[in-house]
UniProtKB/TrEMBL annotation:
Residues of the full protein shown: 1 to 330 of 462
Region (Disordered): 141-162
Name the UniProt record assigns to this protein: Cystathionine beta-synthase
GO molecular function, one term: cystathionine beta-synthase activity
Source organism phylogeny: Bacteria, Bacillati, Actinomycetota, Actinomycetes, Kitasatosporales
Enzymatic reactions: L-homocysteine + L-serine = L,L-cystathionine + H2O
Organism per entry: Streptomyces melanogenes
Enzyme Commission number(s) from the entry: 4.2.1.22
Length: 330
C-alpha cells in the first residue's frame, strides 16, 4: 500500500517548473519552485511544521496546548493543519480588513479566529497587538510561534528548501530569487545555497516599492505577504546580495501573465518575484540557472488581481511599464 501517515508528511518536496513564455528573449534557464503544492497551499507549511516541532522539543508547547498567533494568511493555514493533526488548539488574531473568505478557511480547519478593529491605535486594548498578547497571557498552555522572530522559520528553509533546490538543480543553480516578508525564506534558503556552493550562488530579494528592504519607509502597497515597515530578526541581511524593488502594477500584471501563459495560477508576491527574477536573468548567459520561489496559489486573490474591475479601478490594466514588458513579443 502506498500512503502518507498524515498531511504533515506531504509538506515540502515541491516541484521545479521551467518558465517558457514570460522568459522570451532570455538566455538563462529560469525555474519556478511552486510552493502551492504544499498541503496548505503555501510555503508557510514548512515553517509551521518546524516551529511546532521545535516548541514540542523545548517544552514551550505541551500536549493539548494552544497556539496563538496574529495571522490571517498562509502561516495560519499551515499552523492550523499541523496543530489539528497533533492535537493542539489554534487561536488566530486578525484585523477586520481581512476578507471573510480567509477567516472561513482558518475556521474550516478548526481554528478559532478573533477579529479586531483596524480603526484603533496600537495602544488600544482592542488592537490587534494587544488582543494577541492578552490571549497568550490568559490562555492556559498558550504558545506564540511569532514567525518574525522565531529562528525555526529561517531554519526550516535551511533544512528543506535549500537542500531541495541544490538537489533538484544538480548543483547547477547560480541565482536564487525570493520575495521578502518575514525574511525567513530568503535567509534560510540563501544561507544553505551559499554554504553548499562555496559562496557562488547569488541571492536576490524581491521587495514591493515602499517597503524597508528596498530603502522605503513602509509606505503602503497592495502586494500581500511581502515587504515590511520594520526589520524582523528572522531576516539575515548578510545573506542577501541584492534587493530588487517592484511596483504593484508590474507585480500584478506579471501574476496574470503567469496564469495565462505558464498555467501557473499564483499569488501577487509570485508575480513580484518573477519580475525581479527576469530583471536578474536578462543580463545572464545560457549556463546560468535562476530559481524563483513562488509562495502561494492565486485562488486567494480571484476578486482582486484576477478581477478586471479591481485591476482597472487601481489603474493596473493600463499599458505595462518597461519591467513588465520583459519577454513580450513586440
Ligand atoms: N509571499 C506570501 C504570499 C507570503 O505569505 C509570504 C510570507 N509572509 C511571503 C511571500 C514571504 O516569505 P517570508 O516571510 O519567508 O519572507
Amino acid at each position: 500500500m502506498q500512503f502518507h501517515d498524515s498531511m504533515i508528511s506531504l509538506v515540502g518536496n515541491t516541484p521545479l517548473v521551467k518558465l517558457n513564455s514570460v522568459t522570451a528573449g532570455i538566455q538563462a534557464t529560469v525555474l519556478a519552485k511552486v510552493e502551492y503544492f504544499n498541503p496548505g497551499g503555501s510555503v508557510k507549511d514548512r515553517i509551521a511544521v518546524r516551529m511546532i516541532e521545535a516548541a514540542e522539543q523545548s517544552g514551550a508547547l505541551k500536549p493539548g496546548g494552544t497556539i496563538v498567533e496574529p495571522t490571517s494568511g498562509n502561516t495560519g493555514v499551515g499552523l492550523a493543519i499541523v496543530a489539528q493533526q497533533k492535537g493542539y488548539k489554534c487561536i488566530f488574531v486578525c484585523p477586520d480588513k481581512v476578507s471573510l473568505d480567509k477567516i472561513n478557511v482558518l475556521r474550516a480547519y478548526g481554528a478559532e479566529v478573533v477579529v479586531c478593529p483596524t480603526a484603533v491605535d496600537p495602544e488600544h486594548p482592542d488592537s490587534y497587538y494587544n488582543v494577541s498578547d492578552r490571549l497568550v497571557r490568559e490562555t492556559p498552555g498558550a504558545w506564540k510561534p511569532d514567525q518574525y522572530s522565531n529562528p525555526n522559520n529561517p531554519r526550516s528553509h535551511y533544512e528543506t528548501t535549500g537542500p531541495e533546490l541544490w538537489e533538484q538543480t544538480d548543483g547547477k543553480i547560480t541565482h536564487f530569487v525570493a520575495g521578502v516578508g518575514t525574511g525567513g525564506t530568503i535567509s534560510g534558503t540563501g544561507k544553505y545555497l551559499k554554504e553548499v556552493s562555496g559562496g557562488s550562488v547569488r541571492v536576490v530579494g524581491a521587495d514591493p516599492e515602499g517597503s524597508v528592504y528596498s530603502g522605503g519607509s513602509g509606505r503602503p502597497y497592495l502586494v500581500e505577504g511581502v515587504g515590511e515597515d520594520f526589520w524582523p530578526t528572522a531576516y539575515d541581511r548578510e545573506v542577501t546580495d541584492e534587493i530588487v524593488a517592484v511596483s504593484d502594477k508590474d507585480s500584478f500584471q506579471m501574476t496574470r501573465r503567469l496564469a495565462k501563459e505558464e498555467g501557473l495560477l499564483v499569488g501577487g508576491s509570485c508575480g513580484m518575484a518573477v519580475v525581479a527574477a527576469l530583471r536578474v536573468a536578462e543580463g545572464l548567459g545560457p549556463d546560468d540557472v535562476v530559481v524563483v520561489l513562488l509562495p502561494d496559489s492565486g485562488r486567494g486573490y480571484l476578486s482582486k488581481i484576477f478581477s478586471d474591475e479591481w485591476m482597472a479601478g487601481h489603474g493596473f490594466l493600463e499599458e505595462a511599464g518597461p519591467s513588465a514588458r520583459i519577454g513580450d513579443v513586440l
